[in-house]
Design goal:
This protein is mostly helical and 617 residues long. Among the domains are: 299 residues, A middle domain of Talin 1; 103 residues, no CATH class. The protein is 78% helix and 2% strand. The protein is built from 23 helices and six strands. The strands form three sheets. Strands 1-6 form a two-stranded antiparallel sheet. Strands 2-5 form a two-stranded antiparallel ribbon. α5 runs antiparallel to α19 and α8 runs antiparallel to α23. The protein starts with a helix and ends with a helix. About 10% of the residues have low confidence. Its main location: membrane. One of its GO terms (molecular function) is monoatomic cation transmembrane transporter activity. It is found in: Membrane. It is a multi-pass membrane protein.
């Protein structure tokens, strides 16, 4: 055994050390935020019960900070930025708003895989692909069960699952090649931009086809209306004419109007993505407004009651359409629906004396955290605005950012950075005082949205780094492979939100939306989170990434666990495509049973190799 091996921070070397604390302080520096290893060996004196308690506390706090910061702070900031940039719903849905929903997974993967730890990339693979496998099997099975049966849109289903399957296949190819360099990492990350282009093209093509279909329907309705008018002028009794129209659902002249009403009731459930729902509604609205103008002119020329009824029906439908179309904005549909579900489940808005003991405990835990976040993350929504909070944030938000990035003592052009930041903060503070009211934000709220986005990222990065640092300790103490810790500890924690909220959405009638979130959300996390992690890891070095180059049996078993995650991810997605095609994209009970069985086989296989790896060590 070499001298370097004897000085390596491993469990065997720590157990052989005469002074354990001194050895750990000198040789164990893998953590980047908090030195949990030093704390456990020097302060807790390797007390196992204390480690168990610490594991529970750190896990709950870190995962809560990740999910609540992304949901309550990052998502509103991204939605506001999207509106300010006038992004289309399609573009926002696959970029900014998707980041708000997948931020915990994305930043955990980036910090785990892009750090200085050589095994961090294995942790990132376990986290990203493990979470993806869990969501696309167990969570999706629960969504299908709560929906009884789902009819997926063929094109969108193939797009999302196909891209996800190809991403897993590409990483498997890298594994077989034995290394990943910078161009290979960029190639993997570029899949994300290809995906965006495909999404935008599909939306444009679907909109074009819908528009052509609506034009043909309107021409048919106009011809029918002219025929009715000729019958009316030729002497048909008006009362009989109106009666016939009423008995026949206003006959064919109201067909387009009735179709739209039916869509508002049930039709939106047939479309897999929110951008399709919104796009279809916008098309109906535009075409029916034109139809309304045409029918209004006809009414003025002919002055008969039937035209009045048509005009009233279409105007009423347009008004309903304007009201309903707002419901399909992505930022106010999926993300806010999840927020309402969680709020209902926890019910923190009850008065104190009505709260149960555990609700009081959670409230006392959240209260100081929320105060600190509210004083460091600017609000992004108008209904959250408070003038005095905004004035304070002009100082606290930039100072918090400087403190986290360790730049409080930095200099710019030989001038201390605070001499630049504080005057700018003062000017902004005076502007807030002058141009805003107590509950009405200023016109430059977008500036606060940008700081809200940046500082939300800081909070999420802090929480993710806290988790990754603690996993360094767990891996050291338990000798468990990092990929396995990623596919269990990190994957279960980051997937908890999807596991509880997506099936609940399905139970409320949003099954297609919940199913889309299971695939598109995990695809986004994989391409963006793992893609950026690969780029950061390979910018200065080549990653040795092979099943066949490791010399020891334990290292080979560690790599086999990584390969197991990737192989099962690829196999599962491939079988999903095949089974969905055979069932005509109708997902029912048999499909959900397959998903649960697939994950059970994967979990027991990975656990077997993990136990074998520990025994070999």
């Amino acid at each position: 055994m070499s001298q370097a091996d004897l000085l390596d921070c491993s469990l065997a070397n720590i157990q052989r050390a005469i002074n354990v604390c001194q050895f750990v302080v000198e040789h164990c520096h893998d953590e980047e935020l908090i030195q949990f290893t030093h704390f456990y060996y020097c302060t807790l004196n390797q007390n196992v019960p204390s480690l168990i308690i610490l594991t529970i506390v750190i896990s709950l706090v870190a995962f809560h900070l990740l999910s609540s910061t992304a949901e309550s702070y990052l998502s509103p900031a991204l939605a506001k930025i999207s509106d300010s940039l006038k992004c289309s719903q399609t573009l926002a849905g696959v970029t900014l708003l998707a980041l708000g929903n997948g931020a915990p997974d994305v930043f955990t993967a980036i910090i785990a895989g892009g750090g200085n730890d050589d095994e961090g990339i294995n942790l990132a693979i376990g986290s990203i692909f493990g979470a993806g496998l869990f969501v696309t099997t167990v969570t999706l099975a629960k969504v299908i069960k709560n929906s009884d049966e789902l009819k997926a849109d063929k094109n969108i289903f193939i797009r999302d699952v196909g891209f996800y399957c190809f991403a897993a296949f590409l990483i498997l190819i890298y594994l077989l090649i034995g290394k990943v360099n910078f161009p290979m990492a960029v190639a993997f990350f570029s899949l994300y931009f290809v995906f965006i282009i495909v999404v935008i093209y599909q939306e444009w093509d679907a909109k074009r086809k819908r528009k052509n279909g609506i034009n043909a329907q309107l021409i048919s309705d106009e011809n029918e209306l002219q025929n009715r008018h000729m019958s009316f002028v030729s002497g048909q009794d008006t009362d009989d004419y109106i009666s016939d129209a009423e008995n026949n659902d206003f006959d064919k002249s109201y067909k387009a109007s009735e179709n739209l009403k039916d869509f508002l009731k049930t039709g939106y459930l047939k479309y897999e993505s929110p951008e399709d729902q919104r796009g279809l509604l916008d098309d109906y609205l535009e075409e029916f407004e034109n139809a309304s103008s045409s029918l209004e002119a006809e009414r003025q020329k002919k002055q008969h009651y039937s035209s009045n009824l048509v005009d009233f029906s279409i105007k009423n439908t347009i008004q309903k359409t304007k009201q309903h179309s707002i419901q399909f904005r992505i930022s106010h549909n999926f993300l806010k629906m999840k927020s309402r579900i969680k709020s209902r489940m926890l019910n923190f808005d009850l008065q104190w004396h009505y709260m149960k003991w555990w609700q009081k405990f959670i409230f006392l835990y959240e209260f100081p955290i929320n105060i600190v976040r509210d004083l460091t993350i600017p609000p992004s929504e108008e209904d959250q605005w408070n003038k005095w909070q905004g004035m304070i944030l002009c100082y606290t938000a930039p100072l918090f950012l400087l403190a986290y990035t360790e730049n409080l003592e930095a200099e710019v052009f030989n001038l201390h950075i605070l001499f630049i930041v504080l005057p700018i903060s003062t000017i902004l503070c005076l502007a807030v005082w002058k141009f805003s009211h107590v509950s009405k934000p200023p016109s430059f709220l977008w500036i606060f949205s940008i700081f809200g986005f940046i500082n939300s990222i800081v909070w999420i990065s802090f929480s993710a780094q806290l988790l990754v640092d603690f996993l360094q300790l767990l891996q050291l103490v338990t000798n468990v492979n990092k990929a396995y810790l990623g596919l269990t500890f990190l994957a279960f924690g980051n997937s908890a939100g999807d596991f509880f909220t997506n099936p609940q959405l399905a139970k409320m009638g949003y099954g297609i939306m919940a199913m889309t979130g299971c695939f598109a959300g995990q695809l986004f996390n994989t391409l963006l989170g793992f893609g950026i992690a690969l780029i950061l890891k390979t910018k200065n070095q080549v990653i040795e990434f092979s099943l066949f180059t490791e010399q020891t049996m334990s290292q080979q078993l560690d790599n086999i666990i990584v390969a197991t995650v990737l192989l099962f991810s690829f196999a599962n997605l491939t079988l999903i495509l095949i089974l969905a095609k055979k069932s005509n994209y109708i997902l029912g009970k048999a499909f959900s049973n397959y998903l649960n069985i697939m994950y059970a086989i994967f979990f027991f296989t990975a656990t077997f190799f993990m136990i074998l790896s520990i025994l070999v060590r």
